[in-house]
Structure formats: structure tokens, C-alpha cells
Design goal:
By secondary structure, this protein is of the alpha/beta class. The chain is built from twelve helices and 20 strands. Helix content is 30%, strand content 23%. The longest helix has 15 residues, at 11-25.
Length: 374
């Protein structure tokens, strides 16, 4: 028996979105971000789909995610984007993962462990070119490159940075970050032998920042069908458009008739002003459908939109279906996705929650029964 609340992921949409990103990337390699359980879409399932489509490498946050990919048979390089600490180095080396170093204190121990395993390990360096969150400052870059080059069992496989404002097409920041990144990495000429992969562009960089594609791009949210600047990005996008891959559905538990003047749910945050037909659904904040959606959200029931009314509980919510045709227990309710001609998007839910589509997808995808379809 499965939960009435079900997240389905469209394999066809993932493939389509990868194709869109590949077209935009030109000749640059593609490193799909599958961290955070594939943005709620499934770490392993998504990695397998993207591997079939030609992904050059994968990006995760922690070593444990990389180990899961290896156990699932993923053979491409897996970059540990959030950095490493001494306690994770042995597992990283054993699983042939690629560390992204944010400072040079790990170089000696990493080289020693790679040597004990008889390996020559690729490392990437993370440059803080303007993100201000993590990484090497430009003035520390050359010394760290030299430390890696001097380590017997390491070699410099790549250098990366991150764009903090690539979702804002009007910002001048992205051009400044790109310039800092290029100027700093130009110093590699003559320092290293062989190819060093330079990568900067996230989804926003891929879509909006000219010159940011370099050797490899790291799309995340775009692969899952959404634009980094949300609904505004979709409004001005040119075909082929991205296709949302996630759909979140539930079922009507009960249909109730209540009179005018009836307070609904905890704290009576909604009071009926007319005789009202309510559909009770088994969805609440335990499922990632947060309390802030109270009296704001809409769902699809038998096609049309219907408002969510009253306080959202841990496992129950109420939908006003008075204006709809007959609704029965067992009818499908769409909280995210398409039903008939209507669609609820993660951008819609994000607007009601006061957040971004990334957070919506992670919440719903990671907190509900999920499977890949088609």
C-alpha cells in the first residue's frame, strides 16, 4: 500500500531539459547538479537519466552523496562541491570522488591517502571570485595551485567559482565575477601541464551570462524544468521551453457540507460566508506543504483551481470546492503539476510561500513517496 500523497518525476521532461541545456552550452561539457537528492527529484534516478544523455560529471554537496552514486553504478567524475574535512578524506579516496578544495590545508593529507591507495587523484579548486561564501581568495590562488602541483599523488583537474547574482539578468555583478575568474585563472599558463577544466556557469550563468560557459557548465534548477529567476524567466524565455519534471498529487478523503459562519481548522483562520462544500485532503506541513500556505494556496480538483482554506495542519488541509461540479472521495487533487488545461507550478507555490522554486521542489520531493514515470 502506498501513500495517497505521491510525487512523480517525468523522465521525458528530464531528458528534454538536458537537451535544452546542451544546446545552450554549445561545446561545453555538462555537469548536472544532483545534490539535495536531485533537487527533490531523486539523486540516483536523475543521475542515471543524465548519464545516459551524456553528462560529463556530476555535482553533489557531500561525500556521502557521491558514495551513493558510486554504489548505484555511476562511473563519471563526481565533484564534492561543498568541500571536504579530514574525517571524509579516506571515504572520498576509496570511492574515487573528486574533491573541490576551498583552502590548501587538506592538500598534504589528501595526497598521502591517495598514495596509500596507489592513486593519482584529481582535485578542483574553488575560487571566491565574488560569491563571498566559500573558496580561495584570488591572492591565495597561485600558492594553492603550487601546493597541489607539488603533491605527489594529486593533480589539478579544474578550477571553479560560483555566480551569486546570475538569476538577475540586469545585474552587472555576473560580468565582474566572470572577469575576476578569467583574470585569476589566466595565471595558470605555464604553471601546469595538461588540461585544466574551468567552470563557472550555473543555470543562470548558462542562460543569461555571456561568456560564462567556458569548458563546463553546472546546470541545476534548469534540468528540473524551472528558470533560475522563476516565473519571470519563463515569461520571456524563447522555445524550446523547459518542462517541469515534478508532479505532486493527493486524493480527496472526505467531502463535507458546512453552513455559513463556520470557523475552519486550528485558530479558525477562515470562516465561511456561505454554505460551503469542503474537500478534505491528507496533505500538510509534514509533507512539505507549509503552514504559510494557509488561505493562500490553490490546488486542482477535476480540472479547475480551488482555494485551500483554513489552517494547514500536520497531515490535513481543506479545499473549498463549492464552485466545482461533483467531487467524490478518491478524486485526484493536484498540488503541483498539470490537470487538464490548468497547471500549478513551483513558481506559483513559491510566490504563495514567499520563497523560490528550488525550496518548493526540495520540500515536496524529499518529503513524499516518489517515483519516476515514463
Amino acid at each position: 500500500m502506498r501513500s495517497l500523497n505521491r510525487v512523480t518525476i517525468s523522465r521525458a521532461a528530464l531528458i528534454h531539459n538536458f537537451s535544452v541545456c546542451r544546446q545552450l552550452a554549445g561545446g561545453a561539457a555538462i555537469l548536472p547538479l544532483v545534490k539535495a537528492d536531485g533537487y527533490g527529484h531523486g539523486l540516483i534516478d536523475c543521475a542515471r537519466v543524465f548519464a545516459e544523455q551524456g553528462a560529463a560529471a556530476f555535482g553533489v554537496a557531500e561525500v556521502v552523496e557521491g558514495m551513493r552514486l558510486r554504489q548505484a553504478g555511476i562511473t563519471q567524475p563526481v565533484l564534492i562541491l561543498a568541500g571536504v574535512i579530514p574525517q571524509t578524506l579516506s571515504a572520498l579516496v576509496e570511492a574515487d570522488l573528486t574533491p573541490v578544495l576551498v583552502e590548501r590545508s587538506m592538500v598534504a593529507e589528501l595526497s598521502r591517502l591517495a598514495g596509500l591507495s596507489g592513486k593519482k587523484l584529481a582535485v578542483h579548486l574553488k575560487l571566491d571570485a565574488g560569491m563571498g561564501r566559500q573558496g580561495l581568495l584570488p591572492e591565495d590562488f597561485i600558492a594553492t595551485v603550487q601546493a597541489v602541483q607539488g603533491a605527489e599523488h594529486l593533480y589539478l583537474g579544474g578550477v571553479m567559482a560560483h555566480l551569486p547574482m546570475a538569476d538577475d539578468r540586469q545585474s552587472v555583478n555576473s560580468a565582474e565575477v566572470l572577469r575576476t575568474f578569467v583574470d585569476t585563472t589566466n595565471q595558470l599558463s605555464g604553471l601546469i601541464k595538461g588540461k585544466c577544466c574551468l567552470h563557472l556557469a550555473n543555470s543562470g550563468g548558462l542562460f543569461y551570462v555571456a561568456g560564462a560557459r567556458l569548458d563546463m557548465v553546472r546546470p541545476g534548477i534548469a534540468l528540473y524544468g524551472y528558470y533560475p529567476d522563476g516565473a519571470a524567466g519563463k515569461t520571456v524565455a524563447t522555445p524550446p521551453l523547459l518542462q517541469p519534471a515534478m508532479r505532486f498529487t493527493s486524493r480527496v478523503l472526505q467531502v463535507r457540507e458546512v453552513p455559513a459562519g463556520r470557523g475552519l481548522g486550528y485558530s479558525h483562520l477562515f470562516t465561511t460566508i456561505r454554505p460551503t462544500t469542503l474537500a478534505v485532503i491528507p496533505v500538510g506541513y509534514d509533507d512539505g506543504y507549509l503552514r504559510i500556505l494557509t488561505n493562500r494556496a490553490q490546488v486542482l480538483v477535476n480540472g479547475p483551481r480551488a482555494p485551500v482554506v483554513g489552517r494547514i495542519s500536520m497531515n490535513l488541509s481543506l479545499v473549498d470546492v463549492t464552485a466545482l461540479g461533483p467531487v467524490q472521495p478518491g478524486d485526484e487533487v493536484v498540488l503541483l503539476g498539470r490537470q487538464g488545461a490548468e497547471e500549478i507550478t513551483a513558481d506559483d507555490i513559491a510566490a504563495w510561500m514567499g520563497t523560490i522554486n528550488y525550496e518548493v521542489l526540495c520540500l515536496l520531493g524529499n518529503l513524499n513517496d516518489r517515483e519516476m514515470v515514463d
